């Protein structure tokens, strides 16, 4: 029934393994996939994993740094596997406790773990217990409740109707009384609320005026009483003449240079002293109570249990949800941390809260760091050496800023000496082509053709509206190859994740043109919606693709990052769902407002109270 069972250390040393009769394939492939996709990526909240036709169950032993993995065919329903893997873990720990307590990694190499006989005994007991349970027989008609009903019991008498009417009248009267009392309570609450508003000193200020006043106070505090400087706003004015390449001298656009790699996102906390203030408050609670409270939170060389971590994990889960992490992802992250820490031996003067927080912080950094190399400039140079354009496709839902961030990426590529062809494949939205034409004109004004041998650095390839987007993209790539463009940026129509016709068209565009990079553009403002969008986009691309290995999303562009303060949870949700990196971060409305993701800065903002 079982294909294999393996026991190995977290360092990769196999202590003992079992392979079922008739199984020819090695278990190395599924186990390596489990390590890469789950254990190394901090996704151990769920103890099951699927690899091709196999279903894997695993259990982590954090005290001795061991992993127990069992594999069986996915089509089988083995109800005893969970209990069986627990029994094997306990039995293996008890038998080889002395060997496992030795220090150093050599303990796994020097000791011989002969566990075959005990394993087969436990396996026979588990299989026997599952067979011993006889199937539940169906009840006969006489044993059912339906057989107890008679015709007389199903007829309603007049007395019964009267009693029902009386009950209905009573409930209606009670509702009316409740409405009256509720109205009186609402009036009283409104009066008290108005009194409190007057007492707070807000006067007749509106909510926006209160926010402006608080913002001014904050800036004056940060700048030492000085007035805050107004942020520089770049205003574009349209030229009255019909110039296509250059703008008038009164319309010069001032943006920062973006040569080289993008800068990482910086997070500046507005409450740097929050943690210190909390510590001072705890100390000021005073006397012996504060001292005993501190000692109560310490763990003295004991194994962490689920009960110890449960209160801290609940607070962490609520904190993550408040920071815009999707609720499902927050629960999975906390469960993963619990699995990672359960049974681990802590130091003498270490609190449970600090341990859980540090483990969660490490997990978040691990999730946000890219699992593969993301170097677009290097990839473009490699494509140029092969005399072909590097193709990037942008997709996403409506109104997230695909065209705007496409223009920012175009400016970044132009600053690094590449020529760009923009393919207008949004043939549905009115004004989409005109928007890209405006971006093309302004980008060419920043890099005039006179400075590039008379050739414009950005060109727009468009065929109007109502045409096949996949065909336009194919023609644009062929045109870029013939004209020697370095990069092709394909702008697609915004579409909701449950719009089947548009999702089919997107899957066709990607399957026909095989772009080098497929980027999903998403807002940093979304919470639970990010999970639904990415899951359904990937699912639609897989369903509508005609190949065995469908092309899915390769990376993420996170937009409107400057509007969320420290609620950066969408970055965690999107990366956790897809397993793909966040390649670009949009931080404003000018062409130079483009950054790369700084994982530690984002996690610092996320963990800030």
UniProtKB/TrEMBL annotation:
Q: Name one GO molecular function term.
A: GTPase activity
Q: Which UniProt keywords apply?
A: Endoplasmic reticulum, GTP-binding, Membrane, Nucleotide-binding, Receptor
A GO CC annotation given for this chain: signal recognition particle receptor complex
Q: Name one GO biological process term.
A: SRP-dependent cotranslational protein targeting to membrane
Cross-referenced InterPro entries: AAA+_ATPase, Longin-like_dom_sf, P-loop_NTPase, Sig_recog_particle_rcpt_asu_N, Signal_recog_particl_SRP54_hlx, SRP/SRP_N, SRP54_GTPase_dom, SRP54_N_sf
**Membrane disposition:** Peripheral membrane protein
- Bias-annotated ranges (Basic and acidic residues): 155-182
SMART domains, per database record: AAA (SM00382), SRP54 (SM00962), SRP54_N (SM00963)
| The protein, known as | SRP receptor subunit alpha
Q: Which organism is this entry from?
A: Cyprinus carpio
Per the record, the gene is LOC109068195
